């Protein structure tokens, strides 16, 4: 009897387990799968790949803008750091103002709210900084009564050294200046004292060595409330009551 177990099997052999044909064999074995480094995966040799001509230009613009922003941010940080360090070293302070005397002559108030008179203010200016020189380029001053300006003047420019104190004089004159509250001035004069305000605006530069700060506008109020000038009912003269007064200085 023939041995069926040893009979040769006809047909195609089973494919190898690794998917590759044995060495030296060909069809009907399947071709090996394409490798990742084949030309199909290479976009430069792929016939189905169509490059975008604007892609590189857009990328260059984005990169350029990012660099510009980075430079601006770095410049702001560096500049701010320098300013902060200089502030720590210099510690700039605003000047101090103090009214020593405030006199009034030729004072007259008419029945139709017209005011005439001459005012003279003597005040001290002190530079509290020990590393900064102050340059007062322009100073304007005005005498007020309850918010109404009566007389104005300009003070000559001056320079103030470190820890220096300067005494200045401001003279004001009014001839028939109209004041809304002129009748109240008359009543105050009858009580023996009239309260005025002295306000100043100064344009100042700060200098420390070769370093210049930008101009600052100082606003000076002398004092925070009023300057009481003692003047009799039948008198045309008066002077500051209560001694010297400190002024408030702001930027």
Automatic annotation (TrEMBL):
InterPro entries for the chain: LEA_2, NDR1-like
Q: How does it sit in the membrane?
A: Single-pass membrane protein
Question: Is Methyltransferase among this UniProt entry's keywords?
Answer: no
Looking up Pfam families in the UniProt record yields: LEA_2
Keyword Membrane listed? The answer is: yes
Q: Where in the cell is it found?
A: Membrane
Annotated Late embryogenesis abundant protein LEA-2 subgroup domain residues: 124-214
Q: What is this protein called?
A: NDR1/HIN1-like protein 10
Taxonomic lineage is:
Eukaryota, Viridiplantae, Streptophyta, Embryophyta, Tracheophyta
